Please model this.
Amino acid sequence: MCGIIGYVGNQDIVPILIEGLKKLEYRGYDSAGIAILNGDDIQIRRVEGKIKGLEDSLRDEKLTGTYGIGHTRWATHGRPSEENAHPHRDCTQSIVVVHNGIIENYLEIKKTLKDEEHKFVTETDTEVIAHLIEKYYNNSLESAVQKAVKELVGNFAISAVSKNEKDTIVTAKVGPPTVIGLGDGENFISSDLNPLLFHTQEIIFLEDGEMAVVKPDSVRFSDFEGNSIEKTAEHISWSPLMVEKQGYKHFMLKEIFEQPQVIRDTISGRISLDTGKVFLEEIGIPESTLKKINRIVIIACGTSYNAGLVGKCMIETLAGVPTDVVYASEYRYEDFILDKHTLAIPVSQSGETADTLAAFKSSIEKSNPSLAICNVQNSSISRVADGVLLTHAGPEIGVAATKTFLAQMAALALLAIHFANIRGKLSPKDNILLMKELQLIPHKIEEILMRAKEIEEIAQLFVSHSHFLYLGRWASFPIALEGALKLKEISYIHAEGYPGGEMKHGPIALIDEKMPTMVIIPKDRVYDKMLSNISEIKTRVGYVLAVAFEDDQEILDKVDKVIPIPVTHPLFSPFLTTVPLQLFAYYIASIRGADVDQPRNLAKSVTVE
Ligand code: BG6
Model:
């Protein structure tokens, strides 16, 4: 979704806003703008397209000031253009607003304001906020914002400035995230942690229905009624280096190569090889409650949904707990049945995806326990859940998720083993065997990454294709979905992931010399079945690439090309089969010159429905 940045202090504000917006650009990148205040003038600069365009325009025509706000947009209402870019102004040109979210009743408000002679210049929902604040403005931006936000229906994170109130930014939120960064004689506002890491690690998260008046030497919190609220800062462990490319061509490639360490960080301190025990006290849900769990519902979107499917495989196989995986955007409108022994598990790297948050909130109304698997500390979803199992992947900047996918699978593997243990489903021998294998996964991924060049050469052969089919069975079916999703997301090649057995009931009609198929075929309980699907394709002159175990001789003459991976436990094969598919998609997109880190029409976390 959109990204908002704000600063009040004594430094030159332009570099702070521009660098901040660059760190938020993965949230939306179809237009951008800033408003700078110095003395009694508001200077606004907006562009259609990327922050780079804004930076160039500021190089040609400088702006200076010490406080202001900035915005990078993912359009919902009003096409991407300079005039629809934020910030937006009121009639008097003295109040300026940036907004992340959707105002559902903006047309009604607009009609009323038009009847009151307000002049609108854009198609956006956001502009009504500027005029609403203008309507209530009486020498206090804070109370005008308080009155305005009470009329808004929908979700919004807004920041506003007025040229009549020096060194003051008023920010308020219902839904999308807002973080306050505390400095020394300066303070920051941002939609997430990444831009703030360069300035401070002392952070305060705004809750829904809260607002803040931010000045260089103070931040005052209150609710929308004006009742003041005490809030304490948190120290964030992420470092600024984590949000830099560190020599890689793209963040996505860097994040793919970070996966061995990400898995080590996500499992470390949580397993004991000696006892085979998993330590998950941090989730804060007593074992007695977990023992009574008779069903699990995993709620997610996008890549997190695919991780949930792998989790289902692990939990049902090891612990025997029936597990459903649901698309959050569908689930929130289904008449779902949950009881107090159903564990709801929202999986979300950002912890901010609106569909997942809303579906999760409505699911826990049935007073069942809940456990969030998130990558961002203190995100909205993690703050609502009873317990949180954090993945330690560090900030993920590439819009297409990679390292957080593997970290989610690692967290779900720990959960599956934990559930199996507390149900006495695993013999100590099997337990330790699984632990040992899980610990070897990072090293085996390093072996695959050492063969990245070979995968690049294979990818080169497919850069001009326009269609691709991905097939997998059992634990590999979610990886077929994920492989296809990665190719779609970043190369814009139409790709479909399908269960291998389902192919003959439809997609087989697509098979011809122009439709290559990627099969994920580690040696497991469905290996032979997958082989017969391959021969169904070969019979129809289809081209088949296979991701298979390196010791698999049988596959060599059954397919056109093999991408070998180290051997592992069948349940852990998703960790190893995913990496070549990430690299395959990455190299095709990169060779095609696509904007790999910021693919068209996508955003890192979608905070509106
Ligand atoms: C999409 C991202 O917007 O949201 C995907 O582009 C991601 O990469 C999906 O998988 C879900 O996001 P999250 O943060 O809930 O895991």
